[in-house]
Design goal:
This protein is mostly beta strands. The chain has one helix and six strands; from the N terminus they run H-E-E-E-E-E-E. The strands form two sheets. A three-stranded antiparallel beta sheet has the order 2-1-6, with no helix packed on it. A three-stranded antiparallel beta sheet has the order 3-4-5, with helices on one face.
């Protein structure tokens, strides 16, 4: 199980490294900047469907118990 401390440490990395959260129901969420996720005591809220101004259309709630792993997102390679 992923802990609050692990998530907080990941969100506060400088520079920020985008990552993907996988959940026990098979869903995954890409966290591409440090403003996309709000960490709570037992879970997180993830901003979804961001517009051009990074304003969320909706949010997903996920309990820490259901976060199965975190993986780095591949960095874009220059063309």
């Amino acid at each position: 199980m992923i802990t609050v401390t692990e998530l907080r440490d990941r969100m506060q990395e400088n520079p920020f490294r985008p990552f993907r959260i996988h959940t026990s129901d098979g869903k995954s969420y890409d966290i591409t900047n440090h403003d996309m996720m709000f960490i709570k005591r037992n879970g997180v809220e993830i901003a979804l469907d961001l517009d051009a101004n990074s304003v969320a259309e909706r949010f997903a709630k996920c309990l820490l118990l259901h976060i199965t792993c975190i993986e780095d997102l591949a960095e874009a390679k220059p063309a």
